[in-house]
Amino acid sequence: MRRTVAIAVATLTALLGSGALSDGRVSVVASIQARPSGFVVRPNIADPGCNGGRGLEWAAHLGEIPVVASSALSDGSTLVAVSSGGFPTERSVVLYSVTTACRPNLAFGNDGVTTLGPAQPEPKDRVPGGALDGLQIDVVAPEGAGGAFLAGTYGGHWMLGKVTPQGQPDLSFGHEGWSVLPFGGEVASVVQEPSGEIVIAGGNGGAGCCTTNWMAALSSTGRLDTAFGAGGRTGLPTGEDSGVGTPVLEPNGDILAPVGYGNMGCWGMSLEMLAPAGRPVPLFQRRLRRFWQALHVGAFVGDVYADGAGFTVIGTGQKSCYGSRPAPSSTGLVARFTAGGEQVGQTIKFPSRMFGSLQAFPEGNDTLIAELPYANSTRLTVEALRRNASLDTGFASNGLAEIRTPWSGMNAALQTELSISGAGPGTIVIVAQDGGNQLQLTRLDV
Questions:
Q1: In angstroms, what CA-CA distances link 24 with 140, 142, 154, 234?
Q2: Which of 144, 152, 346, 418 has its CA 20 to 30 A from that of 297?
Q3: What is the pTM of this model?
């Protein structure tokens, strides 16, 4: 198994740096000045094509409450977006584009960097549930023609933008490259269907018991598809402190929406399958409910991905909520399903501790799993599992690899937040927040 894994880590400042404009116009902020990253990768499986295996670090001017999102695009480059969350005067996002060789993407913006934002003013109406002012980009996702989608919130509304491979707003999309939707809250995930239609999911910006989750659809030109669901969107399962993961597209056009929920160690995951028109697939929820009830777990942390004409759920469950240490009952679980929610075969169990976050990425006959400890995003474990859930000892060191950030300690653990996303075969992008003023990236050749 050979797979390249890209990891981007951002350490964030508490002060607004110079050069980031807020008028929504394209401008240059700073060029990327490459330095080796400070990642510790054990064993050393760093991609030698990425700055000689040393990764990349460069200075960045970040906002007062920085929000960092990143993704690998269809050409293998990595796009990193930095915005300032919740500030009404901030109406722009800074984009950094890095090639697969870990150099500034000179075809993007000015020396790989640009600043842009919506030309239209913030919506004046306050949609119920809308939480944030200004422009905040929470999601970067690849677009079929080689560009990227930027999603999040603008003036308390769902926002979706489209950027060309050259780092310019795609003027054929929405209003001069941006679509503001009549939904309060923010977009949490974006995926484009082969037809060009765009599926987005997010929440109302509420907290705790007040969270509601939705999925919507837009045309390839950024217009809300009002025939999807009811008036353009469909409600999704909701739990305490819940949030929507990246939708999974099935070959028959159905859309699987994973929703994670819970706090204080009492975690779980709900799934909903929607038909292409945005309506729930009949009997899907009933079948999945039987599966969860048979597991007898009080807490579950996991992920889901497309698997042939169905999907696979993989993660760790245990009878009690997660405390300071995993309970003896914690068990790794792999279960495969048809698109209609019927389980295929038996649930496979394997030894596994319960982690605070887990994401899975299929690779041939293996599954790569990225795991983060609870309340500590300064270190990441990546393991490779075969179809029978045994470790693939040909990966890294007997199936396991560890990646540590350049910073450590209690304060770093509390301030760091890793965001992991897959964007096509061979790429995992991971973003972290901390108290510095720099961006870091490394690639793993596994």
A1: 18, 22, 12, 31
A2: 418
A3: 0.89
